[in-house]
Amino acid sequence: MKTKVLLADGRKILREGLALLLGRHADLHVVGEADDGQAAIRLVKAVAAHVVVLNSGLSTRTVAEQVKALVAGRKGLRVIVVTLHPTVQFVRETLAAGAAGCLAKDSASQELVEAIRAVASGKLYISPKIADVVVAGLLPAQKRLPVTAAGPAIQARAPAISPREREILARIADGQTTKEIAHALKVGSKTVETHRRRLMIKLNRHSVAELTKYAVLEGITSLESAP
Known about the structure:
Layout: E1 3-8, H1 12-23, E2 28-34, H2 37-43, E3 51-56, H3 60-73, E4 78-83, H4 88-97, E5 101-104, H5 109-120, E6 125-126, H6 128-143, E7 147-148, E8 151-152, H7 163-173, H8 178-185, H9 189-203, H10 208-218
Parallel strand pairs: 1-2, 1-3, 3-4, 4-5, 5-6
Antiparallel strand pairs: 7-8
């Protein structure tokens, strides 16, 4: 089944270019274009879109509100926000609003294709450039926190999860598959799946995408265990 994409951008020439680009891929189909987020909100249900690519030239709060409205307007809709000036606050608020992906405006066209495919399959996609910004914004705050034998004090704000569960959550957020995590930790795939189910119960999350979003918002990444 083709992934139906709705493009929301004020520049018609750019929308047409993206539509041509995406049309080259057999699994993607542009079903509509909108001048902005508000127009996309009105259109998304009518065209039965699976993914909305939203070009954000507005304030963080406005973009977050548009993302909420889009997600509420069609069940299962996935929204990718494209931004020129990503900040930690922007990423946090757009993801919290329901966005499934954040992409830098200077990303290559192939990355947009990869992002659409990723979110359509239920994954969370964060552009590497934006991920670098988020991590850079989180690390200074973490370094200022007192460190105990249990690790950075930031852990105290999160629900009680074991060190192994935290490590698995970090690897999930980095996009590693069950097999990849099992291989890295030298355990069986069923063990990883058990930990994932427990994480979903403890954190009240119902999918890998929701676990990933939680990890990003809490600053839980594999960098914590990096040498």
